[in-house]
């Protein structure tokens, strides 16, 4: 059993070591960071990036269709030449009744991933 656990830990190390997370931005309601599945990407490679939001108890963020109130978070990226990224792959939200209205969103710790960010080896030349 110890061998199996040791083997699983060794297999997970490269995955754990390659992820990256930005410096947090904190308010009294939440903490937000940018996360990725790798700490670098080679030209022509792909990387999964996401907005990680950790809300304080009693606070939430909204889904892409927030329901009767609220607005969804937006992520605007400034990408290097030749890069492109997909939209947010929204996780399934929770129903959140609020004062007689229904909203949809997330509480606690959630990652809003943008799964297909890719860089070409050279910027495209138009013309």
List keywords for this structure.
single chain, 127 residues, mainly beta, 3-stranded antiparallel β-sheet, 9 strands
Descriptive report:
The chain is mainly beta. The protein has one domain (17-119). The chain has one helix and nine strands; from the N terminus they run αβββββββββ. The chain has one helix at 2-18; strands at 20-21, 25-26, 30-36, 46-55, 61-67, 83-84, 94-98, 101-106, 109-119. Strands 1, 2, 3, 4, 6 and 9 form a six-stranded antiparallel β-sheet that branches. A hairpin with a 3-residue loop joins strand 2 and strand 3 (30-36). It is elongated, with a radius of gyration of 18 Å. The protein starts with a helix and ends in an 8-residue tail after the last strand. Mean pLDDT is 80; it is low at 1-17.
The class by helix and strand makeup works out as mainly beta
Tally of separate domains: 1
SSE sequence, one letter per element: HEEEEEEEEE
State the helical fraction: 10-25%
Shape: elongated
Taking the sheet with the most strands, its summary is: 6 strands, antiparallel
Q: Low-confidence parts, pLDDT < 50 over ≥5 residues?
A: 1-17
Number of helices: 1
Tell me the radius of gyration. 18 Å
Mean pLDDT: 80
Strand content: 35-45%
Tell me the span between the first and last alpha carbons: 62 Å
